[in-house]
Predict the 3D structure of the following.
Amino acid sequence: MSLSDRLLAFGWPIPLAVLLLLQLGTGSGAIVTDHDRVVTCYISTWAVYRTGTASYNLDSFDATLCTHAIYAFAGLDEQKNAIKSLDAWQDLKDNYGKGGYERLVSMRASNPHLKVLLAIGGWNEGSEKYSNLAADPERRQAFVKNALEFIKQYGFDGLDLDWEYPTQRGGKPVDRENFVALVRELSQAFRKSNLLLTSAIGAGKDTIDAAYDVKTLSKYLDFLHIMSYDYNGSWNGRIGPNAPLTSKDLLNVEYSIEHLLELGAPASKLVMGLPFYGRTFVSTVAKARLGDEANTEGFPGPATKENGFMGYNEVCDELKRNPDDWTLAWDTAAAEMVATKSNGTASQVIVYDNTRSIANKVRFAVRQKLAGLMVWSVDTDDFNGLCAPEMDTYVDFGDRDKVALAIPAPVNGKYPLLKTISNAILVAQDELTQENVIPSEPDEVPAPGGTGSGPSGAGSKLVGPVSGAVVGMLLFVVTAIRYV
């Protein structure tokens, strides 16, 4: 039982329990067992081949910060209608391999809360081969049998389908129905073995409407991992936010989630994606801003080496090393940070999510009562803890006249974005709880000279700042609870 569960079991109100947990925090971040949301962590296992401090070994993974870990990616063996390793030396133990599957699965021994899934697909796998598989009932049945055996053989808790995307990139219109058939048949087999079945889901309206029978898929999938990022990029020839929370068009996180809910996806199965990376742009406009024209190819990060892409760890390292070169601006609508480097005639621009972005998006997910959050991907967080703490993570939270939020200390050390998710869930839940229970202000005005003991006085907050005496008392109680 988590500390929060124990506090509630002892009769502490939810806001007070949350407040205490945050007061006791040291800035290191809450662990996932302090809240009831899903935190799904994709691991792009090829990140081990990056250079220097950006190289990500599975030993760097912190399982206490995730409820679900997804090993990405496996591929499709078209001849055998089976799952295949895409990097046998990294994934398997055969021929002195590094045994990545086993290493990640084994982390459950010391982290019993953790579920470990294998993802099949991804962008580089394409779409056509999955389209052909899903179209053939006999091949589907063979794949279901083989996939079940593969997942059991390596001890995974389930399978994550990352077909990008049905009906797209060489797919066919009938993929929409065939994907449902594939998911239904997999679900029937996996549920008999108490295994999870999830899927990554594209977030653009056109992709959603063409590729997914959302309501039917939701019957068979345990979670839908919404890839709510890559709404804009250098391919547009214009500077735009990677994962805007809101925007004037339909390319934003709020619209994607609300559209999926309207199409029949239950909130309890939606896991909203958060990007741990930014999109980069090169523009001939001096001091360029969002909306300005840009080249159709952005600049790469030094370690990820992908044009138009830069990991959060690369961004914060660059800002730390060359702070005078960059101008930072917060875009309120997008809830993203914009970093601009200009030489007077041209600009380099990075639009990325920092801890403030993550907190704002978590807040939206909590208010929508979603199952939780998903991250792509943990290997581009600051997993070495090299970057400076960010001080304004929760500046957008709470009407301070209505709620008394206990704000955690700035996250310091490793995994600042990932830790912010769990901390922000607690703050957002506390904020929402207080908003729901605080009475409206009374019509009558207190008599002059009154003590303010009524609803409009100093005592009107349901939860106020914790005094030293109260904290001391609570610490005594918590000490006892830890040994219950």
Observations:
- The longest helix spans residues 416-437.
- The mean pLDDT is 87.
